[in-house]
Amino acid sequence: MKVSDILRVKGGTLFTSSPDQLLSEAVTTMSERDIGSLVVMDHGDLTGMLTFREVIMAVVKNGGSLGKTQVRSVMDDHPLTCTPETEIDEVRRMMLGRHARYMPVMSLRTLMGVISFYDVAKAVVDGQDFENRMLKAYIRDWPVEEPRDEQTS
Length: 153
Known about the structure:
3-stranded mixed sheet, CBS-domain
């Protein structure tokens, strides 16, 4: 299974921020849209990723206030990325290795979507469920062999 399979099911709605946007505005977007991340784009290029992890760290650092903090000062400026052709198992390893919950999907320099660790886990579980159903159907329909008469063998 590939990332493109997840994107096909998930749809293409993308939410982005600019690096110069106020963090308070970005957090409002995240809250209103009930999303855990924003891809940070600058003049059509991926420049970072803003997740609730960076937001919480900024709030703690600023004594509970967002103030005039800009997204660029708190974003992850080296986010993990993958392509639509990346295998799900590889994405899972990458996300676990970096404790990443969100990953932008890029085709060359074009943002194709964002997948979450939840999306990856769901795809794996759905794939295993399908495989289990197919195996059970195969076993249930297993052809019964006629007992062989030892004298005719």
